[in-house]
Design a protein that fits this description.
single chain, 602 residues, alpha/beta, elongated, 53% helix, 22 helices, five-stranded mixed sheet
């Protein structure tokens, strides 16, 4: 049965103007959320991690004969070194940062612009894909929902930038649905569209590998059997498929040669940029055996789909975690908006007999909603989700999937139905207003001029590395915590990232996942004892530290007086002299720099 029905069409002049207005609106709303474009992002926590990965990428990428990263080095965990494969990569973001870093000679507000651009691409790409199939109004609303009204992603900026930038994944899922829609309705599919669809898969590899790109690949994996079944129904003689494909390609090339050639070129460039890096990181990461490392039961209750973004009823107003007993990570988790859940339910009901159209969407929703990394690791049947630690992060794609279920929704013919739909639309506008305005009250934190001046002093000192004391060598999976390698986690998990401003090696580092073997050198040398809060160094301790600093050509020490006892601070000053610079790092507090020009002689 065909789903063809009248759609709302714009006049030809408005067809060109409306996308421009939509793009300007989304860019303005995104800029309102960002707020400050003057300096690099920094909050002393996860926000700094993504800035740091861009810096690391810029320093360690080689492009010839194909892109590859220097992963085995001692730029952190200095001087012991380790494999850096488990950093939170986002290759497109990292290319963007690295290019700007080189063009403008150092760090800058590059990720703020990247984030706004991501929102615009999500909105306009979704509009362009859906406008001819479902009309400009549905396409516009869908574009807004998957960009500025995806509240889970909106509240993830900037602290979890890796899971709030999802433009190519969004467009890949939408394009796969459009392909399925067209084939089921026996509409012609152009070769440029197929090539563009393939290109979106490649571009998705430029996003976060473990949480974002995988959702695009998963949806396509679920849709391909349905696409194959539909094509088989229309062309049951399999022996004719090669000839049909040849004729199809020849006809398309005759009419769109330049367009097809351009898309093939972009596809090859995308493959060159992303596939080698994806394989390098994936193959390296899979070499680590985490079987002995306990998996945290971080999951999200499916009932969160029904939480509205309304004052007094959102997760700030009611203790849902107390009731649901799941693992709540951030505002918006599990909830795309009650209005969207209702619209998706209505759309699914109206198309309930068209199983092939909604089956991949519903299957993916179920895999995400039921995911529990310990009890029911549904997503881990796919290799790209091997390191997926938190079920709540699938919330990123819930708005996209529910939009797809809601798209075929037809207007009710009777007054009660129209009234009910009107109430849902009123709920939608109310949730949009509350969720967005609430987010505008949260400031975007950036690095201060005082921190930059401090780092400039450190950068000028001779030496290869800087010792943060105390430092933090830890994984979010808990590796290093029980061993005593991060006594001040909340204050110090990101202090190593400030090396992007002074360009020297660091002893500590935070990873989302860290293998126990990688911390063994710290344990061998007795660092947990030296890092123990309040511990006063003995003469052998000072001899070890002097030798460690001298042998490994340290420029100095970032000392954190707020995290040490007065006796410890006095010991360091007597040993290495007074500080030459001081500032406040976010979260870590006061930091002073002790140069090692007065390092005691052996």
């Amino acid at each position: 049965m065909s789903t063809k029905r009248p759609v709302l069409l714009l006049p030809r002049w408005a067809n060109q103007l409306w996308p421009l207005l939509l793009g300007v609106l989304v860019a303005a709303m995104g800029s309102w959320i960002v707020g400050d474009f003057s300096r690099p992002l920094s909050d002393g926590n996860d926000t700094d991690q993504y800035e740091y990965v861009g810096y690391y990428f810029a320093k360690n990428l080689s492009l010839w004969p194909f892109p590859q990263l220097n992963l085995l080095n001692n730029q952190s965990f200095y001087p012991y070194g380790l494999n850096q494969a488990l950093l939170p990569w986002g290759f497109e973001r990292d290319y963007w940062y690295a290019t700007a870093y080189r063009l403008f000679d150092g760090p800058g507000p590059y990720l703020q612009y990247y984030y706004v651009l991501s929102l615009v691409v999500s909105a306009l790409g979704t509009y362009w894909l859906l406008q001819k199939r479902f009309g400009w109004l549905k396409a516009t609303v869908a574009g807004l929902i998957v960009s500025v009204f995806n509240f889970y992603a909106l509240y993830k900026f900037p602290v979890h930038l890796n899971v709030c930038v999802a433009h190519w994944t969004v467009l890949c899922i939408v394009a796969t649905y459009c392909l399925l829609h067209d084939i089921l309705n026996k509409r012609p599919v152009s070769l440029p569209f197929v090539l563009g669809w393939m290109l979106l898969h490649v571009l998705s590899l430029g996003l976060e590998l473990g949480y974002v790109a995988g959702f695009a690949l998963t949806f396509t994996t679920l849709a391909i059997p349905v696409l194959g079944w539909s094509l088989y129904q229309q062309y049951p003689v399999v022996q004719q498929w090669p000839a049909l494909l040849m004729n199809y390609g020849r006809r398309q090339w005759q009419h769109r040669a330049w367009f097809i050639g351009g898309l093939i070129t972009l596809l090859l460039i995308g493959i060159w940029l992303y596939v080698p890096l994806t394989l390098q990181i994936a193959l390296t990461a899979w070499q680590f055996d985490f079987a002995a490392t306990p998996t945290a039961p971080l999951w999200s209750h499916p009932a969160r789909l029904f939480i509205p973004y309304l004052l007094g009823f959102d997760t700030l107003g009611l203790p849902y975690q107390q009731w649901l007993r799941d693992s709540f990570e951030s505002f918006g988790q599990g909830s795309p908006g009650l209005y969207l859940t209702l619209l998706a339910g209505l759309g699914l009901w109206q198309t309930r007999h068209r199983v092939a159209l909604w089956l991949p969407v519903v299957l993916m929703l179920l895999l995400c909603l039921l995911y529990h990394p310990v009890l029911l690791p549904t997503l881990k049947v796919f290799p790209w989700f091997s390191f997926n630690r938190h079920g709540g992060r699938a919330s990123l794609v819930y708005p996209v999937l529910l939009v797809l279920l809601a798209l075929p929704l037809r207007l009710p013919r009777h007054r009660p139905g129209l009234l009910a739909l009107g109430l849902v639309i009123l709920l939608m506008l109310s949730e949009w207003r509350h969720g967005f305005l609430l987010r505008t009250y949260l400031p975007t934190l950036i690095v201060s001029d005082d921190v930059l001046r401090y780092c400039a002093v450190v950068r000028q000192q001779p030496g290869e590395a800087v010792l943060d004391f105390p430092f933090c060598a830890v994984g979010a999976d808990g590796t290093g915590m029980a061993e005593g390698l991060c006594p001040h986690y909340d204050a110090q998990n990101a202090v190593f990232t400030f090396r992007r401003f002074y360009d020297k090696k660091a002893v500590g580092q935070y990873f989302g996942r860290l293998h126990p073997d990688q911390i063994q050198p710290f344990l061998r040398d007795g660092w947990p004892r030296l890092l123990k809060p309040g511990y006063v160094f003995t003469k052998p301790d000072w001899q070890f530290l002097d030798q460690f600093l001298r042998t490994n050509n340290f420029a100095g020490i970032n000392l954190y007086p707020d995290l040490l006892s007065p006796a410890q601070v006095a010991q360091f000053y007597r040993r290495y002299g007074p500080p030459i610079a001081q500032t406040h790092f976010p979260a870590a507090g006061r930091v002073v720099f002790l140069p090692l020009k007065n390092l005691p002689k052996t």
